[in-house]
Amino acid sequence: MSHAESKGPELAGVVGFFSSPETLLKATQKTREAKYKHFDAYSPFPIHGLEKAQGLKRSPLPYVTFLAGLTGGCIGFGFQYWTSAINWPLNVGGKPFNSWPAFIPVTFELTVLLAGLSTVGAMFFLNGLPNIKKKAFDPGITRDKFALMIEAPPGFGQASDDDEYFDGVTPVKKKVVDTGTAFEVSSATSFLKGLGATDIKTVYNEGWF
Amino acid sequence: MHNATAIKNPGPFQISSQLKMLLGLFVVLGIAAFVGGFMMDSKRMWSSFVQNHFYFLSLALGGIFFASVQWLTGAMWSAPVRRVSESFTAYLPIALVAFIILYFGMHDLYVWTHASHVKDDPILSGKASYLNVPFFMIRNVVAFGLWIFFTKKMIGNSVAQDANPDYKFTAKNRSMSPLFLITFGVTFTMAAFDLLMSLDPHWFSTMFGVYCFAGLFYSTLAATCLLTIYLKRKGSLEGIVNDNHLHDLGKFMFAFTVFWAYIGFSQFMLIWYANLPEETGYFIHRLHGAWFYVSVFLLVGKFAVPFFVLMPRDAKRDQKVLVGVGVFMLIAQWIDMLWIVQPEFYKDGPKIGLIEIGLTLGFLGLFGLAVARFLSKNNVVAMGDPKLAESVFHHHQ
Q1: Full-prediction pTM beyond 0.90?
Q2: In the beta sheet, which residues pair with residue A40?
Q3: A11: β partners
Q4: How far apart are CA B143 and CA B127, in angstroms?
Q5: From CA B129, how far away is CA B133, in angstroms rounded?
Q6: Which residues in chain A have Cβ-Cβ distances shorter than 8 Å to B268?
Q7: Which residues of A touch B269 (CB under 8 A)?
Q8: Quick check: B313 and A51 CB within 8 A?
Q9: What integer pLDDT is reported at residue B6 of this predicted model?
Q10: I want to staple B395 with a disulfide (CB 3.0 to 4.6 A). Which of A48, B134, B235, B356 is the partner?
Q11: How much helix, strand and coil, in percent to the nearest 5, is found in chain B?
Q12: B139 contacts B194 by C-beta, under 8 angstroms
């Protein structure tokens, strides 16, 4: 067997399952304190304080909304001004060409429209959606399971295409440039065990297609 | 997960005797401005009187409106701040007295009370079956009766729940809330039409009621936020109201800043666009002379400033910012009320002098004393509210 030319699925990381939101919250906090850089928590419902335990930064989404809204407003007003006062001035009811009060509804609507659509678009982009490269590793995380995955850094390693993959043998370690606690399957497994995970699995990335 | 017994009842709140003295002094100044103004320039005094009467009446009604919406929706987040808004209703009986006093100013304020004038004016003659003094007094006193009835019942339930944490009080208030809100919608529109819109009895706007409501909720939210922060700083709400509740109040203030602008602009744009002579007078007065600058202030100050200041998340979680914006919003609402009343009497520009300042302080003193008395007799937190325990540990995602 040759590890270097293996074509098996890429190692995603080691996942530990927890029985309650509280234990997941504590485990997440400890994983962060242990200076693991790549890890993620999975829960079927929002857990208060989880984002803090994970050390997640605030999303840049509000800035996208604000700037898109501003752009929409400028386009909305600017286009009406240009058509009504510059390009094709028409006398409507004796009102001035630049009748700004009449432009406000369209300006408002375009502000909301662009802000709204951009927010949805940016939300998908920032979340990495749609995600066809990774399947959920266990359907239970949308139902009744709480999980914490210590992730392998990108390009960490791949399972070989032979039986070893199913035996969970440590895959080949490629060169990883990373700070914080280095990832290793065995150490991550014992770390999760120490946190009180009820079930620990090594998982591999599986795509939808 | 959390236990209700963990919440310590802060009990009632006593304001300091210095503050009480100050509010008492304001009342004395108000009475002096009332008497002095009445003798020097009664029309000016009454115009300031009706402006401040409506301003503080709006705050008192806003208190029960806010609480009703919380009961109706079964909101969790607002449980620790609901009693703060309930305290504003303590001013309602005083507002009734102020309304009765206003009866003596009707001749100065409302041209439709002059029989000889109405006789020669076909429009006012046509409106006389509605705009006449007996019907005006009857319907407004009935409105006060309804407001005080609902307030006594609902706030009574809320306070009774403090001693006896029974869910039935919440259920009762939830059932009464839609009745009150529908009654409020009709009666408050009527009060706005009668007290303010009929200052120019030729003019009409079907949006005037909702415009006044927008101002009512705008100022009520600002006042609720300010009193909440005050009580938190004094220690009464410490450990009960946290940044997340203030954040939610800030969001509400932000939202109703936009709502006011939306309603205000809608009223203006429809009249401006249609350009009908019977409707445009109102805005012609307010867009000429010094009133133009007041109109610009409303657009920039009442809308744009709170809108942009309250937009970032951190601003809504910062007590200093909320206090600054809250005070500013209350002043902006006062200027809006001035902008509604005074141009009917002074076409050139606003008049703000000893009469206006004195009367405003007088009403403020009465309102403050009424609220302080309420808070000194009742717990500052609705301790029996079944949602309080959950709300105290209220966190945002």
Answers
A1: no
A2: A149
A3: A204
A4: 21
A5: 10
A6: 101
A7: 101-102, 104-105
A8: no
A9: 67
A10: A48
A11: 80, 0, 20
A12: yes
